[in-house]
Amino acid sequence: MLFIVSAPSGTGKTTVVERLVKVTDRLRLSRSYTSRAPRGDEQDGVDYNFVSRARFEKMIADGEFLEWADVFGNLYGTRTSDTSRCLQSGDDVVLVIDVQGARKVRGAGLPHVAIFVLPPSYDVLEQRLRGRSKDSEDAIRRRLQVARGEVSAFEEYDYVVINDELESCVERIKGIVLSERARLACVRDKALEIRRTFDRH
Ligand code: 5GP
Questions:
Q1: pLDDT less than 50: residues of the chain
Q2: Which terminus of the chain, N or C, has fewer Cβ atoms within 10 Å?
Q3: What is the C-alpha separation between 153 and 99, in angstroms, rounded?
Q4: Ligand 1 pocket check: which of 29, 39, 44, 71 to mutate, most ligand atoms within 8 Å of Cβ?
Q5: Which percentage of the chain shows pLDDT scores above 70?
Q6: Distance, CA 69 to ligand 1 centroid (Å)?
Q7: Nearest alpha-carbon partner for 61 in 72, 75, 47
Q8: CA 117 → CA 28, 169, 170, distances in Å?
């Protein structure tokens, strides 16, 4: 199953999802490609696959992306082959992507479960962005501006979770993942197998 997690920047979704994949079996985080430069101690191949804008544009032209978007003037995308390799292994995959990317996945008609993480309030989001202090004042203003627009997109999602406290936010998202795995469509084959064991008696 494909899970999408979106949230305005500064909501802490990366921390939440990194924790989520640690505490949930058979759930993998998809590593995105980006044309932006690494920030702080970010590493290529760990936080993102950092590529040049030219390489990213060539990947778009070659149809390599499941979805991609221009966020804050930088390009971000999910490579189709990375996602399908994970899904084929039988694991579920989480994409941490922005609202535009989620719309593209929805538009492509790919089955998925979309989760929106909201900050408790505008003031808390602003405090978190300033506390992170990785960005310039200009970048913080721009992120808050984009966040204003993104917050309204929550109604396009299947689930909404408020990130008030890390552990409880992670637990609630894990609950969503486990519930989705118990859906009939996901367990039908296994259930039929179990029913067949009754046929012999
Ligand atoms: P940041 O530069 O702070 O790491 O990420 C900026 C925004 O880009 C975040 O909203 C993040 O979710 C989004 N983003 C990261 N990877 C992808 C991706 O592969 N596709 C899309 N559409 N957005 C992404």
A1: none
A2: C
A3: 7
A4: 71
A5: 99
A6: 8
A7: 75
A8: 18, 9, 10
